[in-house]
Amino acid sequence: MKKNILVLLSMGLLLFLQGCNFANPMNYFKSADSSRLEETSEEASTEEETSKSSNSSVINTNETSATSEGETTESTEAEVNTESSLLVYSIGNAVNTESNSLTLEDKNYSVNYANYDISNANALETADLIKIETAINENLASNNYVIVVTSTQTCEELSYFLNLTLSSDNKIAVISTEILDNKYALVDSDITNYLGQLTTSELSGNILTAKIGDSLENVSTNPVSNENKIDITDLKDLSYVSIVYDYLGNDGSILEKAISNSDGIILVTTNKSGEVSETASEIINSNYSGVPVIIVSANENTDLSNYHTPTQSRILLSLALAKGANMDEIKDYFTTY
């Protein structure tokens, strides 16, 4: 009886295992392990793809940033390497330097040299002023800045003439200095100094001047804009104007001779009132030759916005007469300039 029961139980267990596909129990464990490995592999693959996607995004951002930085660097280097040109134009004598380049505020400048050939730099004629202006004007197209070097004796005449006639978008410096060993006493540091002043100057005039070692300043109390420059294209020379000083007790002979031999007269009073002497007054009032006489004071009148020194007055009257101005037009010249 017991034997029959055991047989029945064994058969039932076998049928149960077969029904559950457990004919080979080890296959069950193998299948389970395989499923878990596949799931683990899929999860790992998903995580890896996610990780790669995330890393790829970061790398792309860095690459973009790196490219951008590289482009910025190239642009900056291009700006630093920009070069401008400076002309050093000397009158009669050479300057005491031969440097062909200089660097100012991280900007490179090539330095060119030119010379106006005249045997005596202290003896400029009015025709020389026109030739110098023409030469400088011809060089403006190939040079950003110009430094004119001349003697102390001729600086005021030259600088004021250029102030009246030379049109330039950039500022030009006229520097006066001594002549030592047949050369102007101008060295590299002076050129760098005045170029720096030219590039940063806020002065209204485009023609500036200075005695070597001093700061640049306007040539006159009334700087001339490019629109108001006097055209000298057709002029070869200026009219002849004499400067005569009036003083108490003079006999008037010098003034009379000057009126006879000049196209115009600058009569300079030496008293603070600005009035001429009685002798000079009689001569100019009886002058029927039509020679213009301009009376100026040797003492600068700070009340006048367009005060002219005797030298400036001579240059301006010479220009006005050369342009064919009559007395009313001459008055306009001295009011405008």
Explain what the structure shows.
Keywords: Signal, Transferase. Residues 39-81 are annotated as: Disordered. Residues 52-70 have a biased composition (Low complexity). Residues 1-23 form the signal peptide. This is L-asparaginase/Glu-tRNAGln amidotransferase subunit D. This protein is α/β, with parallel strands linked by helices and 337 residues long. The chain has 2 domains: 83-228, Rossmann fold (3-Layer(aba) Sandwich); 241-336, Rossmann fold (3-Layer(aba) Sandwich). Helix content is 45%, strand content 19%. It contains 9 helices and 13 strands. A 7-stranded mixed beta sheet has the order 3-4-1-5-6-9-10, sandwiched between helices. A hairpin with a 2-residue loop joins β7 and β8. α4 packs across α8 and α8 (310-322) packs across α9. The longest helix has 56 residues, at 25-80.
Give the oligomeric state of the chains in this entry, treating copies of one chain as homo and distinct chains as hetero: single chain
| Major sheet size, sense and barrel closure | 7 strands, mixed
Query: How much β-strand is present in the residues?
Result: 15-25%
Q: Count of DSSP helices?
A: 9
Derived from helix and strand composition plus strand pairing, the structural class reads: alpha/beta
Please tell me what the overall shape is.
elongated
* Mean of pLDDT: 82
Question: By CATH's scheme, which homologous superfamily of the largest domain applies?
Answer: L-asparaginase, N-terminal domain
Output the strand order for the largest sheet: 3-4-1-5-6-9-10
Biased composition (Low complexity): 52-70
InterPro entries: Asp/glu_Ase-like_sf, Asparaginase/glutaminase-like, L-asparaginase_C
Protein name: L-asparaginase/Glu-tRNAGln amidotransferase subunit D
GO molecular function: asparaginase activity; transferase activity
